């Protein structure tokens, strides 16, 4: 349908719009118009556009033309209905309802029964033949209008209502009779006069005009702004206002109101789903003041309306080609449709419904792929706590890595490993983690820290391992010395059970039952599609993933540092390794060997330390190449600051001081302390790391390159197919890369000569500094591939230290709307993204066959994957558990771009 709009037109009758005008008419108005066009029973009305709202919000006043347009449409509505707004003997009543482009349920305002007054309530009673109904409608108007439009505290009305029921000796509103409601109306009007400083308006047009402004104003309430931030809805869209002639579900037992779904939004199964409430208006269903009955019972209450509703639901689902969420009212046996929209659904229902609609011929596979997303797939992959279980909440932190984990509280890595080896499930609890905690993190079921954010060490490593993690739980005080945590008066000792929910950030005392994910079992190859509910979900996921893999252009690799992670990644569909972080190979038992390298005073000592590390590195790479045989493996040479491999400066200083006081100082400790002081940096992330290490410590990178080359040669001679790529980190200028590459080429040539094996090892670099991105054309002269390290690129572009800023001021930035989402979570397209785009263009201008990838955390973020597809990268690389998400989003990006091209 046409999306043409008249820029001077601020009001559209329901007969003039259509479902494609959501930008202008909002979701509710566009769909009311669509149902009207379909000939469905929609009460007549009109919509004030979002453009009018924007003018009002920008200028503080309505557009000059708006009042006349509203008057013209109201006049036409009155003629059609055969009565006037609020006329004394037979009043036309209307609802004034919000309706933004994107659904914001309950966030903005609505006022029903506009047009009732002291005079017209009598006429309504006479026309309806029901005095109680008329006075009940009037008290509802005063209550809603007083709270919504005039700013009266809603509790004052509720208290008066409760007092009236108590005085009558009843518990529900419907047991109040007309006399009771007349008294309540008088009380409500007194409350308005006293608290609003004015009387309740008796002029029906004034009521409507004030309600329209109130709906406009509700766009910027605190709750609406908070909801938009959470849902990433732009703040400049504004809301439409729908003026709809009232129909009444509170006219007796042959009237009622309800909500219906064309399919079950929880499971996706077809059937009769919804709720119905006799003798009620819509807000009664939402408020839950009376118990509804299942929609299926409407068949026995009013079969004619039920049958009509079933036909309308089928019509709407076929027309919208999707699950529809419907609001309806029955007025004395007459069915009226008040709203429809594409319904929200659970992640499992989204996959089931998408494939069901394909099977029914309503949509094709490309459209089915657009009906699901990576966030939904991620929800399906992680285990969850049983929602029905009783829980004791300890605290809440940042949901850093999804999943549900239960175990005994432990407060250091040694204990985590020890208890885990004894068969215990443990939760590693720290103030924050560091590389020394890696063994404990691997051993633990989940990780909990009282400090740090979504990109802290704990969070990044946990996501890479698929471990549940909650970070920054500041209300939890972690005491590692006394081996316990405290929250208020609650104390959790080491060994006590705790449960960590990485999907919500909640931490519970004791054990909460966990429900496993059949989708992960499917990706692991342990489950196949069958007949039961879980297998039906797996079958739906399988079909959509298969199509995504067929159409996607972006390849998906894994960030993996060992053979176990690499094998898991391959099962999950990885097409290689995009980032092997070799620094993770130097922890644990090898730490002392690194200390010897750091403490080496002579060339002989340094060469001996490197020689000892060489066979260990070679063995690591052989395992890695074997697990990824036939697929590319990008190995990043050593990157972190060397002081991370040395003891903590404070602890070591105390140890040395105590030893000196006892006159038994340890020579090795003294040398370590000197090295720690020498290597200590105020900002290690901007210090001696990456390529700088390879240039300052002779032989370090050469040893790693030799280990890679020898491992590749050994695998090749064993009839394997190793495809190693060597990546130089933190390059800022082409000269750095040229020096390291010259050394690497020499080492590779030596290995080729010694083994008699020809190796095709490509050498490239990470682009993780702004200067590297800006000089990408020069760097491409010496690099065969680029991999964008968007974690560090984001840090250096923004001037943020990711381990600090999320816990300090990111919350305020998100609340104030400076960020819609953390730039460490989703790529900042305008800043970081602009550098990526320019580096891609400059790099390929120099070297047309330049291979381009990304290995930062953004590689598994759904929104970021679409950006990387758009700018022309060849692959994304992410943690093993995010590979299916990246595959799905890469397919969605390709299908989306194909759809745009065809249009």
UniProtKB/TrEMBL annotation:
The active site is at 457 (tele-phosphohistidine intermediate), 855 (proton donor). Residues 63-291, 297-348 form the Pyruvate phosphate dikinase AMP/ATP-binding domain. Signal peptide: none annotated. It catalyses: pyruvate + phosphate + ATP = phosphoenolpyruvate + AMP + diphosphate + H(+). Substrate binds at residues 581, 636, 768, 789-792. Coiled coil: none annotated. The keyword ATP-binding applies. Keywords: ATP-binding, Kinase, Magnesium, Metal-binding, Nucleotide-binding, Pyruvate, Transferase. Its cofactor is Mg(2+). Mg(2+) binds at residues 768, 792. It holds the Pfam family PPDK_N. Residues 424-505 form the PEP-utilising enzyme mobile domain. InterPro entries: ATP_grasp_subdomain_1, PEP-util_enz_mobile_dom, PEP_util_AS, PEP_util_C, Phosphohistidine_dom_sf, PPDK_AMP/ATP-bd, Pyruvate_phosphate_dikinase, Pyrv/PenolPyrv_kinase-like_dom. Belongs to the PEP-utilizing enzyme family. This is Pyruvate, phosphate dikinase. It comes from Streptomyces sp. gb1(2016).
